[in-house]
Design goal:
DUF829_TMEM53; Rossmann fold; AB_hydrolase_fold; 2 domains
Length: 330
């Protein structure tokens, strides 16, 4: 049984960050090649909350609480730590959006805005075709993403994962490191409060080769598929064997929060029977699993083909999660 899929360009990742770009409604900051952080500037009310907490913290430092304080004042000191935590936690949940191969900015913006409008910040994570064709590079990229999530402004934030097509493969590279080093990354896995999979590529090596052909150069689909199958055979220990290991990690994922799957029965890159088997296996593990299925749709374009059903299913899923209720302005 095979797995998930690919992405457009070979992004070299480095430690440099660009200056933030301000639009009318959000700020975009490139964290490194292939990873962009979108966040909404703080509102005036949020600024006032932060200022209030800073003032309270200063007052508490200069005027220590004593047992002689009245019960009324003492009751205020009990809620102070929570106020401080709320203001200092970078409050908004963070959506990790693992995009599909060849995702264009306009198409990605529709998903980004879905979550920005619901009170979340968005970390867009793109992959390279080489991360898939040579999995060890994909593992290196996965480790880089994990390191970014452990640094400000992402430290300690509640996370939601949305992976489309190859995005499922890239997210699995993170899961692999978490599975290898559970003591180091257990806290991060527990921060993921939900995960969404759109057009996950599952089935056999043939499904993966088909995905390469349809996505890279559709006019040469047959040639690319044949070449990919030959490549998988020639470099089996560096490709197919590692894909199989990734599948096992995904089946036994260290992330056990609620999951949502979007897929269609006519998707040549996905075996519905294999996907149903995966979802049943997760349910047996105690994972809450929901799904939205269409008889006919387009790979990685369900939002465009079925917008009302897609958004209503997403909203119902978000409402069921355990992090603070996001805004719903759509």
């Amino acid at each position: 049984m095979g797995n998930l899929v690919l992405s457009t360009r070979f992004f070299r990742t480095d430690a440099t960050t660009s200056e933030p770009i301000h639009s009318g409604r959000f700020v975009a900051r490139r964290m490194c090649n292939g990873i962009i952080y979108y966040y909404t500037p703080m509102t005036e009310a949020e600024h006032q909350t932060v200022s209030l907490v800073k003032d309270l913290k200063t007052t508490a430092t200069l005027c220590p609480i004593t047992s002689s304080l009245s019960s009324e004042t003492h009751s205020h000191t009990i809620i102070f730590p929570q106020m401080q935590s709320d203001a200092a936690s970078n409050s908004r949940p963070l959506l990790l959006f693992f995009s599909w191969l060849g995702a264009q900015p306009g198409a990605v913006a529709k998903y980004r805005d879905l979550y920005l409008d619901r009170g979340m910040d968005v970390l867009l994570i793109q992959s390279s075709i080489m991360h898939f064709l040579w999995p060890r590079w994909g593992l290196n990229y996965g480790l880089e993403i994990l390191n970014i999530l452990e640094e400000p402004p992402f430290t300690g934030r509640l996370l939601l994962v949305h992976a489309s097509s190859i995005g499922g493969y890239t997210f699995t590279q993170l899961l692999t490191h978490i599975a290898w080093q559970p003591k180091q990354y257990t806290g991060l896995a527990q921060r993921v409060k939900g995960h969404i999979y759109d057009s996950l590529v599952v089935g056999s090596l043939d499904h993966m080769a088909t995905g390469l052909g349809k996505t890279l150069v559709p006019r040469l689909e047959g040639f690319i598929k044949t070449t990919a199958m030959l490549y998988f055979w020639l470099f089996k220990s560096q490709t197919a064997d590692l894909y199989e290991s990734s599948i096992q990690v995904f089946y036994n994922s260290p992330v056990t929060s609620p999951a949502l799957f979007y897929f269609s029965e006519n998707d040549a890159m996905c075996s519905p029977a294999v996907l149903e088997k995966l979802m049943d296996f997760w349910r047996q593990r105690g994972v809450s699993v929901d799904s939205m299925t269409w008889k006919k749709s387009t790979h990685a374009a369900h939002l465009r083909c079925h917008p009302e059903e897609y958004v209503s299913t997403l909203q119902h899923f978000l409402n069921s999660l355990s992090f603070p209720s996001p805004k719903s302005s759509i």
